């Protein structure tokens, strides 16, 4: 599957927004009495997976350079 630069940028934007929202939610849960450790762990794991996906898409934007 080949994606255009525009599609990659759209996916990066969506993933970045989801990553930011998860970060805010995790921070809120940790700071309040609504601490559900399993929920926080799942959210942190999802956040890490999103970060990995962001790195893959960012790498797709870097042009190949012939050595």
Question: What does this molecule look like?
Answer:
The protein starts with a helix and ends in a 6-residue tail after the last helix. With 67 residues, the chain is mainly α. The chain contains 2 helices and no strands. It has one domain. The radius of gyration is 16 Å and the shape is elongated. The model has no long low-confidence stretch (mean pLDDT 91).
Number of self-contained structural domains = 1
Shape: elongated
Order of helices and strands: HH
Q: Averaged pLDDT, please?
A: 91
List the total number of helices.
Answer: 2
Class based on secondary structure composition and strand pairing? mainly alpha
Helix share, percent: over 70%
Task: Offer a few descriptive terms.
67 residues; mainly alpha
In short:
This protein has one domain. It starts with a helix and ends in a 6-residue tail after the last helix.
Secondary-structure blueprint of this entry?
Blueprint: H1 5-31, H2 37-61
Helix pairs in contact: 1-2
């Amino acid at each position: 599957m080949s994606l255009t630069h525009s599609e990659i940028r759209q996916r990066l934007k969506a993933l970045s927004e989801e990553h930011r929202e998860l970060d805010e939610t995790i921070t809120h849960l940790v700071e309040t009495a609504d601490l559900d450790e399993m929920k926080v762990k799942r959210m942190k794991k999802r956040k890490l997976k999103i970060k990995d996906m962001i790195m893959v898409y960012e790498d797709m934007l870097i042009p190949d350079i012939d050595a």
